[in-house]
Amino acid sequence: GALTDSLWCLSLHTNRTFQIDYERDQFLKDGKPFRYISGSIHYSRIPRFYWKDRLLKMKMAGLNAIQTYVPWNFHEPLPGVYRFSDDYDLEYFLQLAHEIGLLVILRPGPYICAEWDMGGLPAWLLTKKSIVLRSSDPDYLAETEKWLGVLLPKMKPYLYQNGGPIITVQVENEYGSYFTCDYNYLRFLQQLFHKHLGEEVVLFTTDGASEDYLKCGTLQGLYATVDFGTNHNITEAFQSQRKTEPKGPLVNSEFYTGWLDHWGEAHETVDTKAIISSLNDMLSQGANVNMYMFIGGTNFGFWNGANIPYAAQPTSYDYDAPLSEAGDLTEKYFALRELIGKFEKLPEGLIPPTTPKFAYGKVAMKKVNTLEESLDVLCPEGPINSTYPLTFIEVKQYFGFVLYRTTLPKNCSEPVPLSSPLNGVHDRAYVSVNGVPQGVLERNKVISINITGKAGDILDVLVENLGRINYGHDINDFKGLISNLTLGSVMLKDWSMFPLNLDAAVQNNLESHETWSNNPSSPSLPTFYVGQFSIPTGIPDLPQDTFIQFPNWNKGQVWINGFNLGRYWPARGPQVTLYVPRHILVTSSPNNITVLELEKSPCEDPRKCFVEMVDTPVLNVLPSSKKS
Ligand SMILES: *[C@@H]1O[C@H](CO)[C@@H](O)[C@H](O)[C@H]1NC(C)=O
Ligand SMILES: *[C@@H]1O[C@H](CO)[C@@H](O)[C@H](O)[C@H]1NC(C)=O
Ligand SMILES: *[C@@H]1O[C@H](CO)[C@@H](O)[C@H](O)[C@H]1NC(C)=O
Ligand SMILES: *[C@@H]1O[C@H](CO)[C@@H](O)[C@H](O)[C@H]1NC(C)=O
Ligand SMILES: *[C@@H]1O[C@H](CO)[C@@H](O)[C@H](O)[C@H]1NC(C)=O
Ligand SMILES: *[C@@H]1O[C@H](CO)[C@@H](O)[C@H](O)[C@H]1NC(C)=O
């Protein structure tokens, strides 16, 4: 705003500097010793509506800085198409931090890891199939240069020395953990960052706290920092930083307050006492610490990443952080605040309270159409035909689902194995023949199922991208059918591929579409269900946040009023409820819930055909432990 602009103009005339003091092993802010106690918050995982609330809570915890990543794929969904408004308005986020009095440690990648799809790299980079990401591959460098040429000039006015909040800027992320070990790439980035941000900006790198990682992750001129959690010996961890940086401030760029989850594995937590003890030791040594995460937030839509051996992360990125996914104050928050208070003066004023949650209760759902019946809405352009299957990239569909369709080349009156001999179903496929469900293929887990049908029957293989690998060697993670399927000994050919635009279809009120069939169909086919609920009147301060759960449902995707909340998968766990921020709810008319259930809904029994809105999150139930 204008006020901010004028304040910044004034501050331009004061002498704002941020530097490394190699003699006394510290940072200097305006020439004076400075140490940051920071927390990670990813604006891409929190709706803009709540940015201020979360930042204020971080400020009130005694933090003097925040750290955020910038996910490239969040801002450049298609080559040359940029998004920087609304929930994508990074500059507004920086402005808010500045107004609240928080400094910013910016991590613009281009690779970020972050348990974010493909570590933040846009999937369309894979259009060149053989591209070597995070290296001096000329095609990769060209796109990187273009992107950073858009992003970094926007960041320049927000640098501390230019009157803004950004004190330091990270180059790449844990590059020493990646196989390319390409110093020319790091040098290229270093020059590019300086070109756009100026020579005086403090650039740094972050790597795991061991010489092995630091070896390929660091470069002269980029200040080397380390990351480690409570399970590390602090003295030894900082010694590894000292081997690369004999002088300068000690920095733990990612001190883990919690940990990430995967579908099918127990919810991760980190003990508050261990965190307090480690943080106390680090702060006592004068170290600079960023807590990763201070608030995790949510992988809305399709934004989660995955690890190897292939394991996708769930929708919640709660992370067991001091502020919960929904921004709630936790015991960990207050314990940290108390500890920080021993080192720094805590700000005066009230801590914004935990936002109230409301249990709107059960919402009856009704079947609309199967996904196959909705194809003309989901894929108005019609299919792309090809003898052999094409990947998501080849049909320019980057997230969600593609339906692969062919016909059975022979009679299968007895069960015949439908197989992916090369484990090329990325990542999950829901298979049906002439509208009869046959089973689910899954990467690394189920590479063959038996099917039955007659020659000429329609074989539908709905392939779901469960999230791209975000860490390690395999980030070139192609989706779809990335190798041929066989039926018995026959290779299947002559495919029609339907790239599905679910978000657009749901936003255009799929449920009011004229071809609403209500045909009887198996409850095990991928099917859309809709329901409505109204915000009760006569209760003050509604709407409030809530959590949606899916009792007796299996796996799918859910939207409220067209906002893609993410994946639900109680059949695998550990996440049971999905966070519903209140800003997507309306009071003036009923709210629409749209569910795409992929495996089996409970709707055969109309009394069980409901979803439920509750006031408490449940993130730690594995189905195997459900019954006990
Ligand atoms: C940490 O490592 C140092 C140096 O190897 C050692 O002296 C110290 O006892 C260790 N501390 C703990 C808590 O294990
Ligand atoms: C694609 O294949 C389907 C099924 O064989 C056929 O009906 C359709 O006409 C083909 N489309 C094009 C554009 O060739
Ligand atoms: C499939 O079986 C039907 C009888 O059920 C028969 O008429 C047809 O010729 C068979 N097709 C092939 C390709 O074997
Ligand atoms: C497929 O069917 C065959 C013959 O009925 C059976 O031996 C085999 O175990 C089945 N395979 C699977 C994956 O169900
Ligand atoms: C399928 O097999 C054909 C013939 O061997 C091959 O040309 C094609 O590349 C394969 N397709 C995929 C997606 O692996
Ligand atoms: C809910 O869906 C109906 C169509 O079924 C539409 O008219 C209405 O605007 C939608 N409400 C909201 C809040 O999006």
Automatic annotation (TrEMBL):
Coiled-coil ranges from the UniProt annotation: none
Name under which the protein is recorded: Beta-galactosidase
Reactions catalysed according to its record: Hydrolysis of terminal non-reducing beta-D-galactose residues in beta-D-galactosides
PANTHER family, per the entry: BETA-GALACTOSIDASE RELATED (PTHR23421)
Chain ranges of the Beta-galactosidase galactose-binding domain: 526-587
GO cellular component: extracellular space; Golgi apparatus; lysosome; membrane; vacuole
Location of the Beta-galactosidase 1-like first all-beta domain: 389-501
EC number: 3.2.1.23
Function: Cleaves beta-linked terminal galactosyl residues from gangliosides, glycoproteins, and glycosaminoglycans.
Transmembrane helix keyword on record: no
Subcellular location: Lysosome
Swiss-Prot/TrEMBL keywords: Disulfide bond, Glycoprotein, Glycosidase, Hydrolase, Lysosome, Signal, Zymogen
Predominant subcellular localization, coarse grouping: other
SUPFAM superfamilies: (Trans)glycosidases, Galactose-binding domain-like
A Pfam family that the UniProt record links to this protein: BetaGal_ABD_1
Domain annotation Glycoside hydrolase 35 catalytic: ranges: 26-342
Similarity-based family: Belongs to the glycosyl hydrolase 35 family.
Molecular function in Gene Ontology: beta-galactosidase activity; protein homodimerization activity
UniProt cross-references to PROSITE patterns, sorted A to Z: GLYCOSYL_HYDROL_F35
Biological process according to GO: galactose catabolic process; ganglioside catabolic process; keratan sulfate proteoglycan catabolic process
Organism: Monodelphis domestica
Catalytic residues (positions): 174 (proton donor), 254 (nucleophile)
Keyword Secreted: no
Description of how the protein assembles with itself and partners: Homodimer. May form higher multimers.
